[in-house]
Amino acid sequence: MTGTRVCLELSLRYDHGLGDLAPYFEALGQGRAMARRCTACGHVWFPPHAVCPEDAQACEWLELDGTGTVVSATQTRSRLPFTETEQDYIFALVSMDGADNAAFGRLAANAGNALPGLRVHLVAGDGETGHPAQMAVFERLEEET
């Protein structure tokens, strides 16, 4: 049977435990920003770390207000992992207010021009995600005048 091929379709269903980071992922689904603060040095991490990457000390949960500033952004046409539809997305690195690191996320379609310096806020995921890590979605923050 030289050269004969058979086409196989495989499907895998996997229950993925969220472990110690469950509060972070649950909050993302509600548009809330749960971070972790190192009990020794005080650094705040969003996305959170189980232990501080600076000094390996324990971290405690705290909630940020969900606002931040776009550091950089890129627009691309792609299909998110674990989803079926290819479309245009704007991905951004966001410096969250109250955190010492930056978070990778997706800007909602109504975020407009995604230039560095744009003020954004975390919103509840739009249901397009296939994995909990993809629920970090930001919209333009309407500044009060």
Topology:
Elements: H1 22-28, E1 33-38, E2 44-45, E3 59-64, E4 67-79, E5 86-96, E6 102-107, E7 119-123, E8 137-140
Summarize the structure.
The protein is mainly beta and 145 residues long. The protein has one helix spanning 22-28, and strands spanning 33-38, 44-45, 59-64, 67-79, 86-96, 102-107, 119-123, 137-140.
Structural overview:
This protein has about 140 residues and is mainly beta. It has one domain (about 20-140). Helices cover about 5% and strands about 35% of the residues. The protein has one helix at about 20-30, and strands at about 35-40, 45, 60-65, 65-80, 85-95, 100-105, 120-125, 135-140. The strands form two sheets. Strands 4-5-6-8-7 form a five-stranded mixed barrel. Strands 2-1-3 form a three-stranded antiparallel sheet, covered by helices on one side.
N-to-C terminal Cα separation, in Å? 75 Å
Structural class: mainly beta
Helix content: under 10%
Quick one: overall form? globular
Strand order of the largest sheet: 4-5-6-8-7
Q: What's the domain count?
A: 1
Number of helices: 1
Report the strand count. 8
| Secondary-structure element order, N to C | HEEEEEEEE
Give a quick account of the main beta sheet: strands, pairing sense, barrel closure: 5 strands, mixed, barrel
Percentage of residues in DSSP E strands = 35-45%
Query: What is the overall pLDDT average?
Result: 86
Rg is 18 Å
Segments where pLDDT lies below 50 for 5+ residues?
none
